Amino acid sequence: MMEDLTREKYLAHGIPPQSQSRKPGLEKDMDPPPVFDLESRRGSGKLTDKVAVVTGGDSGIGKAAAIGFAKEGAHLAIVYFDEHIDAETTKHLIEKQGVRCSLHAGDIADEAFCWKVIEDVIEIHGKIDILVNNAAWAKRQDSILDISAEQLQKTFATNVFSMFYLTKAVLPHLQVGSSIINTSSIDAYAGQTGQVDYSATKGAIVAFTRAMALELARDGVRVNGIAPGPIWTPLVASSHSEEEVAGFGISTPLGRPGQPVDLAGSFVLLASADSAYMTGQFLHINGGAYLSS
């Protein structure tokens, strides 16, 4: 429950030291598990019969966004790497809302896979109204000197190139009123030691979003983004050391790590007609962290 997400709870207990060697991380192995939904949150039909494609939708922020969409009546296509247990759990939760959900496993750094995903979604669901480019990969290094060419290419291929591939593939299917939402990060604005390549990709996503917003405005397609701060997701557990994870997010002005559910309403806003006069914009959900940087 949101009532439990308090400064006092995390100051008293924090997040226990933990790390996952497997990349991407698994939600089922996180302690405590991320909060991705609230039973008290009710939908109002803002996305009835829309079809949304969400990358990284098996867990974390993507999962929270997908469930938020489902509560508003949207059907979902969840794109993920190989976290099958997490994906099946998310599919079950989405279908409990009375909507359809398809799963699409593969590597979004592969252009051919991205085009295949869009083809499959059209075949299964008949249309696409919303694209959420959310999936990301990160590996911390103490110095830029430790970032190999291979790691640099993988980080950009997963975090940036995939957005080009999926956006190109989906454009012929979008209509006036369709929405593209890209997940950036506070790191694009404040920087982050130990994640130079990741931060650079998140900055590229901001520029990509603004450029695409201008390019697609004439077609009535809106392109916006969300820049999260310290959100408790599998990416954190798999890209930080045990010491870095311990106490994660407590230093923010609001005194706690963000939970995926903290972002769900913003994704719904940007996907729905409530944001009909917004494009090229970013919503900063970071517990006030950027205000104090």
Short description:
Belongs to the short-chain dehydrogenases/reductases (SDR) family. Helix content is 39%, strand content 12%. With 293 residues, the chain is α/β, with parallel strands linked by helices.
Name its key features.
293 residues, Rossmann fold, single chain, disordered N terminus, 10 helices, 12% strand, alpha/beta
Question: How would the blueprint of this fold be written?
Answer:
Blueprint: H1 7-12, E1 51-55, H2 60-71, E2 75-80, H3 84-95, E3 101-105, H4 111-125, E4 130-133, H5 149-170, E5 179-183, H6 187-190, H7 196-216, E6 222-228, H8 234-239, H9 242-245, H10 261-271, E7 282-285
Parallel strand pairs: 1-2, 1-4, 2-3, 4-5, 5-6, 6-7
Describe this structure in words.
This is SDR family oxidoreductase. It comes from Planococcus shenhongbingii. Residues 1-11 have a biased composition (Basic and acidic residues). The chain has 293 residues and is of the alpha/beta class. The chain has one domain (44-136, 143-292): 3-Layer(aba) Sandwich (Rossmann fold). The chain has ten helices and seven strands. The protein has helices at residues 7-12, 60-71, 84-95, 111-125, 149-170, 187-190, 196-216, 234-239, 242-245, 261-271, and strands at 51-55, 75-80, 101-105, 130-133, 179-183, 222-228, 282-285. It is globular.
